[in-house]
Specification:
Oligomer: single chain
Distance between the termini: 44 Å
Shape: globular
Strand content: 35-45%
CATH superfamily: Electron Transport, Fmn-binding Protein, Chain A
Radius of gyration: 18 Å
CATH architecture: Roll
CATH topology: Pnp Oxidase, Chain A
Helix content: 10-25%
CATH class: Mainly Beta
Number of domains: 1
Strand order of the largest sheet: 2-1-5-8-9-4-3
Number of strands: 9
Number of helices: 3
Structural class: mainly beta
Largest sheet: 7 strands, antiparallel
C-alpha cells in the first residue's frame, strides 16, 4: 500500500488566501502631522517570541501606509463581534474621503510607548515599533517589535497571560 494521498479526495483550491482563518484586526496609526487613522488588516501574525514581534501586511496604496512608513509605529487592535459595524466601516472607507474615525465615534487613547492611538473599545491593543519591512507583492509586511500590550482586565490571568477563550472574536 502506498503512502501517497488519494488525489480523488483533493481538488485544486484558490491560492490567494488559502490560510484561514485570518485574524480580524484593526491597525491604528498616526501621521507625522498628528493625523490619526485606522484600517482593517487581513494579514497579521506573530513572527517572533524573543523578542516578541508581530507582522502586519499593508497595501502601499492605502492611506495609512505612508503614516506607518514615516512614523515607524503602529498599534494592532484585536476586534470582538460587537465591533463588527465599526470594523466593516473602517475596512471599507478611506480617510481620503472623510474622517471615518469620527463618523463611527471611535474612542481613542494614547499609546504608552508609541506615538499612535489605541482603539479603546477593542479588548487588546498591541503597541509596536517597526523594526523591518519587506515587500511581498501586493503588500508590504511591517515587522513590529511589541513595546506594550494593553488588555481588558477581565482577560488577564494572575500569570499575566491573556485568556483568549474569553474574547468573542469577529
Amino acid at each position: 500500500m502506498s503512502d501517497s494521498m488519494d488525489q480523488s479526495l483533493k481538488k485544486q483550491a484558490n491560492m490567494r488566501s488559502c490560510l484561514q482563518p485570518m485574524p480580524k484586526v484593526l491597525v491604528s496609526c498616526r501621521g507625522l502631522d498628528g493625523e490619526n487613522n485606522a484600517l482593517a488588516v487581513g494579514y497579521c501574525s506573530n513572527c517572533s517570541y524573543d523578542p516578541p514581534m508581530v507582522m502586519v501586511g499593508i497595501v502601499p496604496s492605502r492611506y495609512s501606509y505612508k503614516m506607518i512608513k514615516e512614523s515607524g509605529v503602529f498599534v494592532v487592535n484585536l476586534v470582538e463581534k460587537e465591533y463588527k459595524d465599526v470594523f466593516d466601516y473602517l475596512g471599507s472607507h478611506s480617510k481620503r474621503d472623510g474622517d471615518k474615525l469620527s463618523d463611527m465615534n471611535v474612542k481613542l487613547a494614547e499609546g504608552i510607548k508609541v506615538k499612535a492611538p489605541l482603539l479603546k473599545d477593542c479588548p487588546v491593543n498591541i503597541e509596536c515599533t517597526v523594526v523591518d519591512s519587506i515587500a511581498t507583492g501586493s503588500h508590504e509586511m511591517f515587522v513590529g517589535k511589541i513595546e506594550h500590550v494593553h488588555a481588558d482586565s477581565r482577560l488577564v490571568g494572575d500569570d499575566g497571560n491573556i485568556d483568549f477563550s474569553k474574547i468573542k472574536f469577529l
